[in-house]
Amino acid sequence: MPFTVKDIMIKKDLCKGCGICIDVCPRNVLTGSDEINEYGLYYPMVSDLKRCIVCRLCELYCPDFAVEVHV
Amino acid sequence: MSGIITTEYIREKYLRRLPTAFCPGCGDGQILGALIRAIEQLNIPKNEIVTVSGIGCSAWIPSPYLRIDSLHTTHGRPIAFATGVKAANPKLKVIVVTGDGDAVGIGGNHLLHAARTNIGLTVIMVNNAVYAMTGGQVAPTTPHEAKTSTTPYGNPAFNLNVSEVVAAAGASYVARWTTWHINRLIESIKKAMNKKGFSFIEVISQCPTYGGRLLNMDHIEMLHYFRDNFRENADGMFRIGEFVDVEKPELTDELEKLIMKVKS
Lengths: 71, 264
Fold this sequence. Notes:
The complex is a heterodimer of chains A (71) and B (264).
Chain A (H helix, E strand, L loop, with lengths): L6 E4 L9 H5 L5 E7 L5 E5 L10 H5 L5 E4 L1
Antiparallel strand pairs in A: 1-4, 2-3
Chain B lengths: L6 H8 L12 H16 L6 E5 L16 E3 L5 H11 L4 E7 H7 L1 H10 L3 E7 L2 E2 L5 E2 L23 H8 L3 E6 L3 H13 L4 E6 L6 H5 L3 H11 L11 E5 L5 H13 L1
Parallel strand pairs in B: 1-2, 1-3, 3-4, 4-8, 7-8
Antiparallel strand pairs in B: 5-6, 7-9
């Protein structure tokens, strides 16, 4: 499917910083960040957007509906 | 897969409020997402579905968050309440979301008899092997020698293999998955909801707070444990996949036939 990713958005107010999205990503697009959100948790950051293959595993495995992959 | 279901769409159409009350890394949120994606892919109108849950962490999956009619009932009795809903209106799709302490510990008898009578419910049992909401006490599904708050030196008893018990009790669809196998869980929920009779899906889930603290594992290590150990050709608790998939007469259909027979 000819999908190219435009943006991966992480909702800071929903993320609980569990890190499952970082673990399941097969291309290591997401990494942990040094910044904290309003709950004091380390939310993930997009490190290399060009590597994303739009498998949407991060959306599927996120327990808190915080990851959005825009194509 | 029919189309792509985005998180934005799910949040708008199916969720009442976020964030959820689950601990960071809890599998319950993943199961909520799987249930929503299965309902969306089947394209069932929301007013034809009723979700029923009991007491426990997993009972919070449908009750406050899912924008679908839900019953939040007493401890161990969601299957009894769901039987009433189904008998009153057999056209409804009744989904019971329950935990291991709820379905097997407190309400084990209801589970066995619902499977025996083959009433058309879909039961999703979240198995995290402890009573997580009340402080991590030992449950009927806790493995042998596992440490919990009430068995600090290891569980002396053995765990119940729930899927095999329900299969033996006569359910028409029984499957077991883990939170690592989300795509196959979605396909399984779709199949179970289309089944006429009693369908039962056991989902092995991670409990990062109580299960993980006593096992010295975090939720990602537990997910990797599920990935590496659960196989379709494995034995005992490590077996995943479909256990039973048969067609059998369903209870409300049989009741309808009986009513017609007595009337004529």
